[in-house]
Design a protein that fits this description.
The complex is a heterodimer of chains A (611) and B (349).
Chain A: H1 10-14, E1 17-18, E2 20-28, H2 33-46, E3 51-56, E4 65-73, E5 84-89, H3 95-100, E6 102-111, E7 124-128, H4 130-137, H5 141-160, H6 164-174, H7 179-199, E8 206-207, E9 218-221, H8 223-232, E10 238-241, H9 248-261, E11 273-276, H10 280-293, E12 297-301, H11 303-319, E13 323-331, E14 337-341, H12 346-350, E15 361-362, H13 367-384, E16 387-393, H14 394-398, E17 401-404, E18 418-419, H15 421-430, E19 450-451, E20 463-465, H16 479-499, E21 504-506, E22 513-518, H17 522-534, E23 539-544, E24 546-547, H18 551-559, E25 562-567, H19 573-581, E26 589-593, H20 602-610
Chain B: H1 38-53, E1 60-64, H2 68-71, E2 81-84, H3 90-100, E3 105-111, H4 112-117, H5 120-129, E4 133-139, E5 142-143, E6 149-150, E7 159-160, E8 164-165, H6 173-179, E9 184-189, H7 193-205, E10 209-215, H8 228-231, E11 261-265, E12 271-275, H9 286-298, E13 302-303, E14 305-309, H10 316-320, H11 332-335, H12 339-347
Parallel strand pairs in B: 1-2, 1-3, 3-4, 4-10, 9-10, 12-13
Antiparallel strand pairs in B: 5-6, 7-8, 9-14, 11-12
Helix pairs in contact in B: 1-7, 3-5
Classes of the chains: A alpha/beta (611), B alpha/beta (349).
Amino acid sequence: MSVIVQEPQTEQVNQLVVNDFNINVATANGSGSQTSNNMLIRSLYKMGIPVTGKNLFPSNIQGLPTWFNIRLSKDGFLARRERIEVMICMNGATVAEDMESVESGGIVLYDDALPIANHRKDVHYFPMPVKNLVKAANVPYNLQRYIANMVYVGVAAHLLEIEMDEIKQALTWNFGGKTKPIEMNWSMVTAAYDWAKENLTNDQPYRVGRMTGFNEGTLLVDGNTAGALGAVFSGFTFAAWYPITPSSSMAEGMISYAAQVRRDPETKQATYAIIQAEDELAAIGMVLGAGWAGARAMTATSGPGISLMAEYVGYGYFAEIPAVIWNIQRMGPSTGLPTRTSQGDILASYFLGHGDGRHPVLLPADPTECFEMAGAAFDLAERLQTPVFVLSDLDIGMNLWITKEFEYPEKPLDRGKVLDAKELTKFKDAHGGQRWGRYLDVDGDGIAYRTLPGTDNPAAAYFTRGTGHTEYATYSERPDVWEGNMQRLAHKFETARALVPAPIVDEVEGAKIGIISMGSNHPAIIEARARLRDEEIETSYLRVRALPINGDVRAFVEKYDKIYVIENNRDGQLCEILLVDLHDLGYKLVSVAKCDGMPLSARWITEQVTK
Amino acid sequence: MTATPTRTPAARTPKLNLIGLEKTEYKGGVSTLCNGCGHDSISARIINAAWEMGLKQHEVVKFSGIGCSSKTPAYFLGMSHGFNSLHGRMPSVATGALVANHRLIGIGVSGDGDTASIGIGQFKHLVRRNVPMVYIVENNGVYGLTKGQFSATADQGQKLKYAGTNPYMPLDICIEALAANATFVARSFAGDAKQLEALLKAAIAHKGLAVLDVISPCVTFNNHDESTKSYAFGKEHETPLHDLSFVPSYEQIEIDDYDDETEVQLHDGSWLVLKKLDAAYDPTDKHLAYRTLEDARKQQKLITGIFYIEPETPSFLDILQMTDTPLARLDESRTRPSRQALATLMAEL
C-alpha cells in the first residue's frame, strides 16, 4: 500500500516518465550500500538505458551520510543533474533534508523505521518495512545491515520496472559468481520485490524500459580502472604510489590487472614492479630513479601528493627524466574536500616547482581517454624526457561512466632518444663529428639523447644533477651555460606543443559564441549546448586535451566574438593559462568557473552563458 | 700522526686488477672539497675497493643527496652513471633505479644532515625494504655547505664556532639502522683505510642494504675536541672480517694491530679513540649490537667494525619477483599484453 497523502492526479500517472529521471539513494557510509547502488545502475545500463552514477561520499569509513545519484537519460545526457525525482531514504540522519530535495510530483521510498516528521503533499511516499523483511530473510546478524540495502533494490525494481533478470546478473557479476553471497542477496531482493508487488499500488509515473542505440560498444566503468588498464597495456614497468583519495583505486587497479596479464604464466615472474612508498616524496623519487634507469615509470596521486612532489618534479624537469604523474584531482587547497571533485590543480601541475619550468599536462574527459592517455603520457614523457601530468579528477576517476570501449593500442611504444652502447659508438659519425653530450641538442628540437645506467660503453656514463650543468653534464655555474640550457628547455617545451594530444573542436556554422572547456565538464557542456540550441543560441566548442596548447586554440579564439572558458575551480585556472599564450585575445575570454565540490551541471552552464 | 692510508702502489709496471684495468681508470673528477676533508679519503677507499674487486664500472650506479658528502660521487668511478638527487631523498631514487635494473650495483653516499635530519624518513624505509646497495653516511656532525650548523648526529654539549652549544641528544645512524631492521650495520673511520676498505668490500658483497656510518671529520667546521665526530675515539676492531663469509675469497683482510684501545690524532690536533670490538663479538646478535652501540654512546667512544649482519633476509628485489631481464631492458613484446587479454578484461567490466 502506498501512503498517498494527496489524492493522485490521474493524468500524471497516465503520463509515464520513462528513462528520464534521477534516482538518489541516501544511505550511511560503510553500510554496504555501494553494492546495492551498483546493482541498480548496472541493471539499468544493461537494459540499454543511458545512465550515469555520481557517488557523493564523505571522508569517513563508517557512519556519515552518503548519496548515490543515478541519472537516467533517454536522450543520452550524462552530466550530473541536480533535480531528483526518485528519492530512496535509508539514513535517518538526513531523511528530512532528503525528502525535501525531491521534485514536486516525485516519489520517496523510505525505510519505515526512519523518523518522518511530516509528509509533503506533492510527493508520493512508499514506506518499506526493511526491518521485517530482513528479519524474515533469516540471515546472520552481522550481515543484516548490509543485506538491508537490498530491500530498496527489490522495491525500486518493482516500482520502476527494472528487469529482475538484469539484477540477478548484476549480482552474479558483482560477487564473481560466488554462489553464497549471490543467493543471499538475491533472496533479499526477490523478497522485497514480492512484498512490493503484493502490497504497493504502483500509482507513480516513473518507469524504466529497455532501449537500444546508446550503450552498444560502450563500457560502464570508472576512470581509475580505465587508467590502470591503460598503463598495464602501454608498457608501464614501474609504479610507486602512496594511498590518497581519490587516486588509490588506480594503483590498486594496476596491482590487480598487472598480476593477471603481466606475469609469466609459468614462472610468475613480473614484468613490472609496483611499490607502495612511504609518502609521495618517496613515490616520485622512486619514479624518477626508475625512469632515469630506463623503466616506464609512473605514480598516481592527488592534490596534497602533488604539493609534496614539487621539488622532485622540478628536478625531473631540469635533469630531464621521464615520469608520468596522474593527479586525480580533489578539492583543495589543503586537505580541502578529500572526497569531492575539482579541477583546481591545473595551475599547480602546469607550473609545479620553483624557478622557471612547466610541464605537459594531459586532460582526459572520460574513462576511455584515461585509457588512451595512459599510453600517450608515457610516450610523451620518454620522448620529451620530462615529467608529464595526467589530470583526471574524482568525478572521472571514481564515478561510473558510460564510455566507449577501449581500443587495443596499435601504435608502437615511443621510448624516446636512448642510445645503446653501439649507437653511442656511432654517434659522432651520425652527427657530423659532434661528440655525444647528455644535454647537447643535435636535432634542433631541444631534446638531447640519453644513455641508461648499465650501458657497456666507457663513454656512456654521465652525472645527473639538479645543479647547473653543461651540455656534457659537467658542473657549471657560468651564466651563459645556465641560460643556454634554460633556453633549450624552453625550446623543448615548444616542441611539446605539436606532440601532445590536440584539442577537439566542434564548430557550428553561424555560431558567434565559443566554449572552451576540458576534462570531466564534457558531458555538461554537451547538454548545455543542446539547451542553448533550444533557445536558438548556437555555440562552437573546443575541448582542450593537453597543455601546452597548440595553434588550434588561437585559431578558435580568433574566430568567435566571445569565448566562455568553463571549468570546475574558483579562479578560472584554465582561462588564466590561456591568457598566458593568448594575452592579445584576452578581451574575448570570459571565465566561467565554479567550485562547490560537485561536477558541473548543464543547467548552471546554460545560465552562465545566457545571463 | 694521521690515520690517512699509505697504501703505496707498485711503482714499476702498472698494476692491473682482475679485469685488466689500472686503478686510475676508477677515478672521477677532481674534488672541490676542503683540503684534508675526510670525505676525500672515503672516495679514495671506494676507488681502491672497486678496483681491487674488479667491478665493471658500467654496472655500478652512484647515488647521493645534497651536502658535501653528496658531491663526492663525482669524484670516484667516472665511468659509472651517477645521480646526485635532492636533499635527503636519495634513497627513493636509488630504490627506483635498482628496481628498474636489478643488475646494477648501487653505491649511495650521504651525510649526517642528509640522512639523519632531512632524510631520516627515506633512510629508514630504504633500510626497512632491504634494497640491495651500499649506503655510506659520511658523518661529521655538522652542516658544512651551509657553513657550520649542527646536524642531528652532533653530540649533546658539543660546541661549534658559530652555532654555539648543542643542547640536544644525537641520533645514532647505526642504532637507527638497526631499529629499521637493517641487515648490515657497520661503522668506520675515514682515516682507517684498511678497515674502511674491508668494510666497503663486505658491503658491496652484501645482498641487501649495507649501512656504513663513516666518521669523517670536518676540518673546517667541526674541530672541537669534545666532538666524537671530530676526534674522540673508540675503536674496537673487530670480529675479524675475514671470518665473515661475504668477504671475497681473493681479498686478504688484515687485522689492524690495535690493542684494546687506540687513540688517533687528526687534522686539527684533537683525538679519536678507537676501541676494538671484543674478539667474542657476535655480529649476528642484534641485542648485542644495540647494547654495544648504546654503551659506546654513553661512554663517548667510537667503536668501529661490523655491528650486525644478517645475510639471509631476502632483499627488496627478491620480494618483488621480477623477471630476469631488468625492467628497463624489457621490450614491448613483454610489456604489452595481447589484444585478447584486453578483450577478456574488458568483458569482465
